[in-house]
Write a structure and sequence with these properties.
The protein is an alpha+beta fold. About 35% of the residues lie in helices and about 25% in strands. It has one domain.
Length: about 130
């Protein structure tokens, strides 16, 4: 199952795609790439975790396009002849998909000499 999380830095958004395995993660990343969320390669944190940078506008457009194709593939005749077609439903689904992403303050990894390390928070009790 894919888990999506992000950090909003204002002008840019860092997105993390985490799947159960490499193939699942790669397929979801490729969907983002194919629908215009990014034009760069994924930054692989682990075999099943990838990250990329985008803007909120590009991310929402990718969600909208992805949802539009899902709707049209599932019900090709449902919106035939209607002004705007399935686009309104695709935009609503995109908003829902974005809202379901986990918003983080940081993605808890640091890069050092080509390796990644988890960052942990330590608390001391008296």
């Amino acid at each position: 199952m894919i888990k999506l999380s992000y950090v909003d830095y204002g002008s840019y958004v860092q997105v993390r795609v985490e799947g159960d395995n490499h193939t699942e993660t790669e397929q979801k990343f490729n969907s983002f790439w194919n629908h215009g969320a990014t034009s760069r390669e994924a930054d692989w944190i682990e075999d099943y975790i990838a990250e990329f940078w985008t803007t909120k506008t590009k991310l929402m457009k990718a969600f909208t396009n992805s949802n539009l194709f899902k709707i049209l593939n599932a019900t090709p005749d449902k919106y035939k002849g209607q002004k705007g077609g399935a686009l309104a439903e695709a935009k609503e689904n995109a908003k829902t998909e974005y809202a379901s992403m986990k918003k983080c303050r940081n993605l808890s990894y640091l890069r050092k000499a080509g390796s990644y390390y988890n960052v942990a928070e330590v608390e001391v009790e008296d």
